[in-house]
């Protein structure tokens, strides 16, 4: 049965290449469609941005701003008119687009807040690890000012909701339509067979012939990639494996530290692996290490768990909230803490125990459950049976 009720999702500007946000909006769209609702996904039209090679810097950045913050709000106001007499719910998929809220019906519009790290960084919170420029501070204050006024809000983690309480200066109660809704898996993550994983790695990463610690993510300072390098140096006399960074290339400061430690031959980088190659990297690693200083959620943690490998992660929230009992927690400021956690994996039965706990933890992040929670946020229910996910 298809409902006459309609969801209109507000997505991100394509040239900005915010891949995780694009995947989230697509996941929400697919899930709501499957639940029986009519769904549209609106994104800012690329008008001026198409004349620039990049909208992330220079003149292209400002052309993109005109598309996003001047032309698209005008489009929103015009397009909303045709839905005035229909039952329609609007949802902004990324909190960085909070300035669109005034252009949409207040009590019919919600937003997902994945984190407020950039806002906290602009306010001078060092623990956010997101320093802001002068213009960045103005921009984040603008975003935050609109976010405070949201009628309906879903936060990815309890930690994000705590940060929001600090930011708005009051406790969020059960009467508020602000809730924690954990995100589900944004792809199909599962344990490949050893044979398939071996074949993929042999073909695509032939240098990866030794046991390895894996990190998946960007080179942003808050991702704390340096921790894997320092941990490797501490384990040199007892473990001769390597570190594999999947995602962005190693930046210059980390490259300098690697050279200083004399371990250039023990670092492998896989830039933007395909999904299947990523599954292989997860499946064959000795351990997945996620030492972030700050996160809004931490998708790679549950991805690794779903692929059947042990996880060593930061002890700073929300990572323990997300990892559940399926990870060894370590202090992201102390390499020796991560080295000790790695040693624990070699205790009899510990590795397999952690893998099984990881599988159990992944049950909390089914996409169907996430969609049901979003529907409940709007006072709605599923109209069609959930497909296992």
Quick overview:
GO terms for molecular function: glycosyltransferase activity. This protein is an alpha/beta fold and 389 residues long. The chain has 2 domains: 191 residues, Glycogen Phosphorylase B (Rossmann fold, 3-Layer(aba) Sandwich); 171 residues, Rossmann fold.
Keywords:
single chain, 389 residues, alpha/beta, Rossmann fold, 2 domains, six-stranded parallel sheet, 14 helices, 12 strands
How many individual β-strands? 12
What is the chain-wise order of helices and strands? EHEHEEHHEHEHEHEHEHEHEHEHHH
- Taken from the alpha-carbon principal axes, the silhouette is globular
State the low-pLDDT regions, or none. Answer: none
Task: Identify the CATH architecture of the largest domain.
Answer: 3-Layer(aba) Sandwich
User: If strands are numbered along the chain, what order do they take across the biggest sheet?
Assistant: 2-1-3-4-5-6
User: How many separate domains make up the residues?
Assistant: 2
Gap between N and C termini: 20 Å
CATH topology of the largest domain: Rossmann fold
Query: Into which percent range does the helicity of residues fall?
Result: 40-55%
Domain Glycosyl transferase family: 207-357
Protein name: Glycosyltransferase
GO molecular function: glycosyltransferase activity
Keywords: Transferase
Topology:
Layout: E1 6-10, H1 19-34, E2 38-42, H2 58-80, E3 88-92, E4 109-113, H3 117-122, H4 134-147, E5 152-155, H5 158-168, E6 178-180, H6 194-204, E7 212-217, H7 226-234, E8 242-247, H8 252-261, E9 267-271, H9 275-284, E10 287-290, H10 299-306, E11 311-314, H11 319-323, E12 328-330, H12 335-344, H13 350-362, H14 367-377
Parallel strand pairs: 1-2, 1-3, 3-4, 4-5, 5-6, 7-8, 7-10, 8-9, 10-11, 11-12
Helix pairs in contact: 1-14, 6-9, 7-12, 10-13
Keywords: Transferase
Protein name: Glycosyltransferase
GO molecular function: glycosyltransferase activity
């Amino acid at each position: 049965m298809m409902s006459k009720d309609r969801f209109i999702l507000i997505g991100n500007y394509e040239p900005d290449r915010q891949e995780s946000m694009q995947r989230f909006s697509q996941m929400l769209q697919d899930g709501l469609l499957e639940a029986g609702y009519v769904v549209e996904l609106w994104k800012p039209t690329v008008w001026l941005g198409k004349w620039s090679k990049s909208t992330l810097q220079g003149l292209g950045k400002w052309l993109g701003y005109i598309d996003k913050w001047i032309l698209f709000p005008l489009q929103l106001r015009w397009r909303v008119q045709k839905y005035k007499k229909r039952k329609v719910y609007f949802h902004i998929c990324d909190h960085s687009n909070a300035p669109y809220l005034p252009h949409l019906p207040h009590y019919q519009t919600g937003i997902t807040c994945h984190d407020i790290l950039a806002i906290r960084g602009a306010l001078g919170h060092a623990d956010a690890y997101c320093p802001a420029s002068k213009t960045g501070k103005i921009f984040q204050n603008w975003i935050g000012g609109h976010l405070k006024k949201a009628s309906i809000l879903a936060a990815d983690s309890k930690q994000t909701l705590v940060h929001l309480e600090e930011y708005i200066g009051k406790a969020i109660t059960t009467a508020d339509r602000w809730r924690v809704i954990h995100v589900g898996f944004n792809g199909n993550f599962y344990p490949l067979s050893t044979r398939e994983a071996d074949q993929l790695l042999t073909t695509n990463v032939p240098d990866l012939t030794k046991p390895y610690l894996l990190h998946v993510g960007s080179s942003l300072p808050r991702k704390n990639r340096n921790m894997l390098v320092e941990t490797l140096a501490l384990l040199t006399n007892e473990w001769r494996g390597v570190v594999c960074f999947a995602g962005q290339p190693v930046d210059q400061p980390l490259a300098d530290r690697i050279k200083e430690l004399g371990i250039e031959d023990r670092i492998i980088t896989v830039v933007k692996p395909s999904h299947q190659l990523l599954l292989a990297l997860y499946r064959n690693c000795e351990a997945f290490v996620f030492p972030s200083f700050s996160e809004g959620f931490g998708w790679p943690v549950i991805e690794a768990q779903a692929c059947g490998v042990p996880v060593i992660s930061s002890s700073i929230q929300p990572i323990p909230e997300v990892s559940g009992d399926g990870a060894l927690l370590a202090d992201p400021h102390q390499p020796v803490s991560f080295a000790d956690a790695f040693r624990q994996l070699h205790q009899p039965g510990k590795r397999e125990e952690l893998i099984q706990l990881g599988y159990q933890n992944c049950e909390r992040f089914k996409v169907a459950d996430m969609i049901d929670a979003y529907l409940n946020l709007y006072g709605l229910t599923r109209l069609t049976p959930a497909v296992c996910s």
